[in-house]
């Protein structure tokens, strides 16, 4: 990725100091802790990525064949499906720490430290567990997260300030809407993103043994064209779901950090528009790019079908793509589906909780769609 894409980064920084958003706690936490930490972290990772070319020069020549991507609206079952598929050993996928430390050299270093840690009683593992409990407790019951859990490829882009996931830190992201639609960036910028996204996946596949790359993302619709150019033979599972339900659930998840670093924005209608716009651009991006996939490389599944009968849904995916379904994984799938059916969510979300009505959201989506059509015309 870019170290930084300055046009977007500067827009993010400038709005932090406007009268609407300038609050000491917000500026201190995001401007003087989060952003410098991301930049320092980015410097370290880039250094090790450069080392990869010298220590593992063959990684960039490996061919990534038919990577499998799960796409959906946010909060629409993509994590649920991914965590069922990831147990099939034919796949390799990103855990959170791997998406943050996207370097073969760092993978090897982490593996060495992990092995050493086990021999001395696992004190580092205990620290990692404590970090997970502290930083991810806000998502308990919503989205099981942690450094060692599988996660979206979003964090490959966050460190360059080129991802909708930045909404966790910037409640005004809808004012910098370039970040929602990277496919619309200038040609030179897109080519750089395509090249570096391909290298990111090659690093991971090389380091983990060369299996089929499995990924999921619920906010990547605006850069799906970049994905397709990086991997023309990519396969896609699209989970179709109720966009209003997705908006309500997304507001509950992505606005959580705002209550800490910018409480003045928390549950306000204007800032909540960032989440709504993120869901809209993702949904519209998937629709706009559907025609670019051959029928044999894409499949649509319904969210309700996935929840009601996950085993049947997974089997239909394997059949559609002609992928082998071995006995070991099939047995594991049966057990996972039994456990999934016993799970009952205790969370219910409504648009009204955030000051909207369904009619307002529908009208916004309709107005934006008309604007997009006029721009294309």
TrEMBL record:
Keywords associated with the record: Membrane, Transmembrane, Transmembrane helix
TM annotation in the entry: 26-51
Keyword Ribonucleoprotein: no
InterPro entries to which the protein is assigned, alphabetical: P-loop_NTPase, Stf3_sulfotransferase
PANTHER family noted in UniProt: OMEGA-HYDROXY-BETA-DIHYDROMENAQUINONE-9 SULFOTRANSFERASE STF3, PAPS-DEPENDENT SULFOTRANSFERASE STF3
Name of this protein: Sulfotransferase
